[in-house]
Amino acid sequence: MVLWSARRGSRETPRLRPRVAPTDLARVDFTELVPEPVAFLGQAAYIQLEAFENLARAVATAPSIDSKEGLSAAAGVALRKHHALIAELRREGVEPVEVMAPFAPATDRFREATAGADWYELLLGIHVTTGMLDDFFARLAAGLPHEVGDRVRRILDEQGAAEVLQRELGRAIAEQRGLADRLALWGRSLVGDTLLIARSALRGAEPSGRFDEDVEPVFTELIADHTRRMDALGLTA
Amino acid sequence: MVLWSARRGSRETPRLRPRVAPTDLARVDFTELVPEPVAFLGQAAYIQLEAFENLARAVATAPSIDSKEGLSAAAGVALRKHHALIAELRREGVEPVEVMAPFAPATDRFREATAGADWYELLLGIHVTTGMLDDFFARLAAGLPHEVGDRVRRILDEQGAAEVLQRELGRAIAEQRGLADRLALWGRSLVGDTLLIARSALRGAEPSGRFDEDVEPVFTELIADHTRRMDALGLTA
């Protein structure tokens, strides 16, 4: 369970409940959110492990050695992110497996739900979900204690995977008639599940409240990035 | 196709055909074999990629997060070996995908044949085949030009995967009645396929000759290592 507080609020009043009247409440953005480091790292680490699993599945089912080779590099990036986050958990003095465990069921379901019906949907699923979530967690890392936040941002900023996925998808879309329409639809359907995972990182097990409205700007940025990512593939988001 | 020659033979006469009468011919050992660097690196790199695929499959199907986490580290080791060998191919000025391609069909079949019927057989399949082949290619690297040979040995010597596999297998064997017998049988059945891959590295597409007899000591060492590996698990080789 990730506990959050608004940075400007009292640390004794967790989450987004500043003691001001609702009408005075500005909407929060990324810089105002304060994640609980251990839970943040645990969820981020497990998400990278699941991204790795989908990338490894893409390697195993790639239609050519060339694609296999490119995707193996992308899988390596996800795995390095995972292991670097695990190292951060150990630095916090906790047992990574125990910290990750509560996030496993929802993340496993998420991975299955975004793996798609064939190799192309699998690739777009990875591209869209890791694109949004890496960015999301990297921005939220701004609210972690200074040093760990910097390290986490550097970990999550490692490039290399998106380029491979974009190249493979771009090539397939150019070659296969009808694939663009199918993938555009699929891309749109991925957004909802991905935002739910992002929101779970913010809310933990909290019941729904005016929270959704407060953090809306956070999600607006994620969706804008998603649109740019789809545009780059010539797909309507 | 990997071309080999006996180190002591003329370089104009490739493979194991020294110009001496058969009766004078001592049996070759690892130090006398001279692999053709590009083909050697291509086959070794592709074998690591396939080992990675099986490890990633083991990660995806692991029965617990703890096992998943351990195996993800082992998958990372195989992936690093693969990418380091790819870097060596680039250093040789060749396109890695083209060099690996001829080895893909046999290696793909080998991976499938050694993946087993369940997670435990998959783990033993990886443990036995990567154990034998990493060792085999590391020893043969002694015949490569000095610098590249040293680098390749260091690449292949990276530890970490075998320990994880041994721990997981040891735990399962201790817990599950009857598993030891089944895995002992499975381990024995893996040796033949693995030796065929090793032999293909020595022989390329060469027709069978007195070659088998000459390189027998090479395989004797591999089999002795295999026996030690099975012993460590309490399995009869």
From TrEMBL, chains A, B:
Gene3D superfamilies: 1.20.1260.10. The lineage of its organism: Bacteria, Bacillati, Actinomycetota, Actinomycetes, Micrococcales. It holds the Pfam family MiaE_2. This is Ferritin-like fold-containing protein. Residues 38-197 form the Ferritin-like domain.
